[in-house]
């Protein structure tokens, strides 16, 4: 009985074809993935697009819906709205739908590759159902960006002003203000002259210390006496000659040390005078800028066409530059990081051979959208174009990102738009932009709107072309605008001024603007020209230049009067330093050179005499 029980206990059931312990966790995992895909995937992608888009746009981005198909990796994103950060009640643009399909081949490698995407139903300046949220300005990402923002802000201030109103004020005989009130405590030249006074005193103290340590006339005289007391006649005596030579050599070394000390002091004096003269020139140069600044505060206009053009249209170009810089700064966050330079291996000498290069066939970058077709037709107008090779690694695919687009919006009266953008991240990031708008309306552009003068473009048609090359350190921009079918509104307090402004309007039925900016981001050089500026100069120069010159001469006289006392004191300081130390140094050097010359002459004469005496003695001792 016991044997049968043991056999029953040892009998174990063989496992079946289905392993319940492994199947259950897999079923649960698959169920969770399916449930997530059905109920949460689309909403998660939607929120992710909205969040990332908002951060990139700087203002709220909304997505109507997201539809995904897991089986074939298709996705449709509908109703994408980009809030206009300058006018958040409107969208800057909307995309009706974006459709694309990812490749399984790439996804299985952990990469996202899209062969072709389609973008449809694009709208611009659409009214939002609710006001969009605008993100606060992000702090500069580094010191360079901060400096660039500061420079652009200062440039904007330089372009401030109402040049037409100021000209009208002068033509009308109005007062431009009291020069004295505008000069008080505001002269940069006076501040520089005051600083120069301190610098001169510091240099004078340093020179005093240096010259006090130099050998005085008494010591130089003692040196002359020492040389005079050398027994040069003993040079012909072989026993006494070494002592004479030693004394002469010692005197010469002492002279050279003294000369060297005076040379060093003289160099210090020359450098000090050079620094003082440079500081004086800097202060004098600031006088010119002070005259200009006081003139601006007194609203004295310039009738130079370049200055007029900058004040009339400088902000038009600057606005586009600021916008380009904003997008460049935003794009930096998403640019592929710069690759470190490869360390070159040390090449050892070897025989001639053949190099083989092995590529990475069929490899993909982390992200690559090969082509996006843009085809939009709606009540507003049409948009057609293509975006190619948006990627995280241009070097891997060997292609640049390009955007080409044409658009026409008859309803908005914006016609014949064409744009081309090339993004090059192969080495240093470069963005090249060329945008042309064939025609669009400009209304109520006030070039002057004051009691003295109103000069307003009430209605016009404008053709514009904007080109930009943006690099990390430098940039260049070009803006060409042509205004036509212009309807001016012109009026002024003074009938004479009104006649002048009407003459300007008649000369500019077509208004042209040619503006450029080029250079380092922190030091852009602007070149702005306009035929309107030339017309203003031509119509006003004859009657206004004399008045402007008189005002500027008055300002110059007032500034010179403010500086007269300070300049007199500084000139006295300079004269004192120059006369005192220059004369001392020159006198000592003349004396020392005389001593050196005397030493050489005496030694040479003694050496000749010693040779003659030695020859005589030799002949005496030699008998035939």
Q: H/E series, N to C?
A: HHHEEEHEHHHHHHHEEHEEEEEHEEH
Number of strands: 13
Helix run count: 14
Q: Could you tell me the strand content as a percent range? A: 25-35%
Relative helix content: 40-55%
Q: Could you list some keywords that capture this structure?
A:
13-stranded mixed sheet; 624 residues; 26% strand; disordered C terminus; alpha+beta; 14 helices; flat
Q: Can you walk through the features of this model?
A:
This protein has 624 residues and is of the alpha+beta class. Helices cover 50% and strands 26% of the residues. It has helices at 2-10, 20-39, 41-57, 104-107, 143-158, 163-171, 179-183, 188-212, 217-228, 241-297, 305-332, 394-397, 495-507, 531-621, and strands at residues 61-69, 74-83, 91-102, 112-124, 367-377, 382-391, 401-409, 414-424, 430-449, 453-470, 474-492, 511-520, 523-530. It has a 13-stranded mixed beta sheet with strand order 1-2-3-4-5-6-7-8-9-10-11-12-13, sandwiched between helices. A hairpin with a 7-residue loop joins strand 2 and strand 3. Helix 5 runs antiparallel to helix 11 (305-332), helix 8 runs antiparallel to helix 10 (241-297) and helix 9 packs parallel to helix 14 (531-621). The radius of gyration is 43 Å and the shape is flat. It starts with a helix and ends with a helix. Mean pLDDT is 78; it is low at 618-624.
